Amino acid sequence: MQAVLWRRYGPPESLTLGEAPMPVPGPGEIRIRVHATTVTSGDARLRGCRGAGLFWLPLRLVFGLFRPRHPIPGMEFAGEVEALGPGVTAFTRGERVFGMAPRGAHAEYLTLSAEGCVARQPAGFTHEEAASLPFGGLTALLFLRDVVQWRSGEALLVHGAAGAVGVHAVQLARHFGLRVTAVASARHAALLQGLGAAQVLDRATRDFTEGAARYDAVLDAVGGTSIRGVRRVLTPRGRHVFVNFGARELARMLWTHLIPGPRVLCGYAGGSQADLLVLRDLAEAGALRPVIGHAMTLAEIAAAHALVDSGRKRGALVLRVAPPIPA
Ligand SMILES: NC(=O)c1ccc[n+]([C@@H]2O[C@H](COP(=O)([O-])OP(=O)(O)OC[C@H]3O[C@@H](n4cnc5c(N)ncnc54)[C@H](OP(=O)(O)O)[C@@H]3O)[C@@H](O)[C@H]2O)c1
């Protein structure tokens, strides 16, 4: 089968399209014919094995100390179930599924556990639309529900609102009854208003930490907000939440747990089947609209990574996977 090959950590050009053996589903696994996948900020980070500060070593221990342990990258996918391993009863052949794999989604075929982060696609979604949801959607869901611990009626500011995590956070927060202020470049204003932001601040000209508005939570979806500055605009029980963080933010999280007042919080979003089902139900209820900022093909993998590296991605960057050539 065709697959992206990842043989060393490095720049986008270190990824090439090549041939890989067809994966065989083991007991409890399914094989998926991938129709669409994505390049996420997580994929770009792993490609170069870039982990903030202390996270570099754990990343290398998990993914390979000197070079990638697994030769095919890629997490998000949408496609159809093509083969069932022994003992699988939860899926049927031909069923349209989507989800997040730990790796291996940048290929024509992917195997993963039927109990992993995989589920039937939201009804009415195309493969491209379904593939655009899990990474940003699950991260936004877990951060809003488990870290921010949102309460209806609260004022939330989302910094970096036009990225994959941001566009889902804006939509989910609005759905859960929060008042959302989005911070992004001016070119994203119409999109973010359409997704439910009550106000959009141009990050180039407006510093929200200097304004008079107060927020119950600030969700920093990309990193870089000033802890001291944000503290000024938080309510007394406010939360400053970092999706992207390093040792400095972790230290402040520990410190703000010991003193009264606003808290700094960091977290990690995994991907379980149970949460994917929650996400799918929200998508089917119309609470989540797919935001596909860029559509490319699997063959354009290096250009896709370069675009993500630029920090200018809007929503999801989806890669279409062409049908395999019959043998
Ligand atoms: N903790 C976890 O479990 C977890 C899970 C998922 C992701 N993450 C991390 O979360 C971060 C965001 O992920 P993502 O997928 O949403 O990224 P993304 O889609 O690549 O975000 C791109 C967006 O970020 C904005 N941006 C870039 N630089 C900015 C800056 N200096 N200030 C404000 N906005 C900026 C850009 O908007 P403009 O056009 O306005 O510049 C662009 O639209 C990544 O660092 C990722 O590694 C963490």
Outline the structure in words.
- It is a single chain.
- With 327 residues, this protein is α/β, with parallel strands linked by helices.
- It has 2 domains: 2-133 and 290-320, Medium-chain alcohol dehydrogenases, catalytic domain (Quinone Oxidoreductase, Chain A, domain 1); 136-266, Rossmann fold (3-Layer(aba) Sandwich).
- It is built from 10 helices and 15 strands.
- It has helices spanning 41-47, 56-63, 127-131, 134-148, 164-175, 189-195, 227-232, 247-258, 273-284, 301-309, and strands spanning 2-6, 15-19, 29-38, 76-84, 96-100, 109-113, 118-120, 155-159, 179-184, 199-202, 215-220, 234-242, 263-266, 292-297, 316-320.
- Strands 3, 4, 5, 6, 7, 14 and 15 form a 7-stranded mixed sheet that branches.
- Strand 14 (292-297), helix 10 and strand 15 form a beta-alpha-beta unit.
- Helix 4 crosses helix 5 (164-175).
- Bound molecules: NADP nicotinamide-adenine-dinucleotide phosphate.
- NADP nicotinamide-adenine-dinucleotide phosphate is lined by residues 40-42, 45, 136, 139, 159-160, 162-166, 184-185, 188, 203, 221-224, 243-244, 267-269, 308, 311-314.
- NADP nicotinamide-adenine-dinucleotide phosphate binds next to helix 1, helix 4 and helix 5.
